[in-house]
Design goal:
Blueprint (H helix, E strand, L loop, with lengths): L1 H36 L27 H22 L5 H19 L4 H5 L16 H9 L2 H15 L6 E2 L6 H19 L4 H20 L5 H20 L2 H10 L8 H11 L1 H17 L8 E2 L3
Antiparallel strand pairs: 1-2
């Protein structure tokens, strides 16, 4: 009992820094990815509603923003993966981190006009000491794209999955391969189905996809191979999209070209076409990290504290 209490108290102490990193690191990554998507350099703190392409005309961005974006998404993936895996030690951490993110993501999906206010509260510059300031634009793009809802649902579901109070027999490693493949197909289908729907139906599908991913990462019954089989393809796809988007950029310039009259709608459409790599890297990497967590044991009875 005392050991379990200590684990829960440690989880409470870690919740705030984990929440800050799980929110701001992908937001910063999405901001850097957005800079890569635009032929002009996006100024620090740019406002998507009042972004004047002409104000930065001629300032062609030569900085390798894609590497900065990849680094931030991988940082977020490590944090989220460790939180998902920590449910086996204390589900408190996953609940304290996942519920606020899921709540913000769900609100933004049901009431799209609130995404801007959510992204700016607390002020993004408040994380400037950690190098994560000016991330409100990235946060808004992640809110609008449903990534935060998917992330929060996965963290919450993972924590709830780990709440079982009795020992559970884990499946053998080979059984995790088909389970992971099925989970990957189901989560992928739910995510793709949610993109064109939006509102309530889209939010439900995104939540369901997050629940599937959270179960794969945190279930005491599943071996690590389930999360690995589901996470590795998503991670590799995300990394490829971030680092090798030449073809995607050509298509975006063809369908949604930027000029002096470009609106915020055009910018969001470009992000929808090009911005999936960040979410894939985040969720795929989190599944891989959760699978490789050192406290995952070999198949057999797994005590619960």
């Amino acid at each position: 009992m005392e050991e379990a209490l200590v684990r829960h108290l440690v989880a409470v102490a870690l919740a705030l820094p984990a929440l800050v990193l799980a929110w701001y690191a992908p937001a910063r990554g999405q901001l850097n990815l957005y800079r890569k998507m635009t032929p002009q350099a996006l100024p620090s703190g740019a406002d998507i509603e009042h972004f004047d392409v002409g104000s930065v005309a001629g300032q062609i961005s030569t900085h390798p923003w894609e590497w900065d974006a990849l680094f931030m998404f991988l940082v977020a993936a490590v944090v989220v993966g460790l939180v998902l895996a920590a449910g086996r030690l204390s589900p408190v951490l996953g609940l304290l981190v996942g519920l606020p993110i899921a709540g913000a993501g769900l609100t933004a999906q049901l009431f799209p006009d609130t995404s801007r206010a959510i992204a700016e509260y607390p002020p993004a510059n408040g994380a400037g000491e950690m190098g994560l300031g000016d991330s409100d634009l990235g946060a808004r793009l992640l809110l609008d794209g449903g990534v935060y809802l998917l992330l929060g649902a996965a963290l919450t579901a993972g924590a709830l999955t780990a709440l079982r109070a009795r020992p559970v027999r884990t499946l053998r490693w080979w059984a995790g391969i088909p389970v992971g493949l099925v989970g990957l197909v189901v989560a992928w289908g739910l995510f793709l189905g949610a993109v064109p729907l939006g509102d309530v139906a889209g939010a439900l599908l995104l939540t369901a996809a997050g629940v599937v991913l959270g179960y794969l990462a945190s279930s005491r019954r599943l071996p690590r191979t389930a999360a690995l089989v589901a996470g590795l393809p998503i991670l590799m796809l995300g990394v490829r999209e971030i680092l090798h988007m030449t073809g995607e950029l050509w298509l975006a310039d063809l369908l949604f070209p930027l000029d002096l009259t470009s609106s915020s709608t055009t910018l969001l459409l470009r992000d929808a076409l090009l911005g999936g790599g960040g979410g894939f890297t985040l969720m795929g990497g989190a599944l891989v990290v959760a699978a490789l967590a050192p406290w995952r044991r070999a198949p057999g009875l797994r005590p619960v504290g």
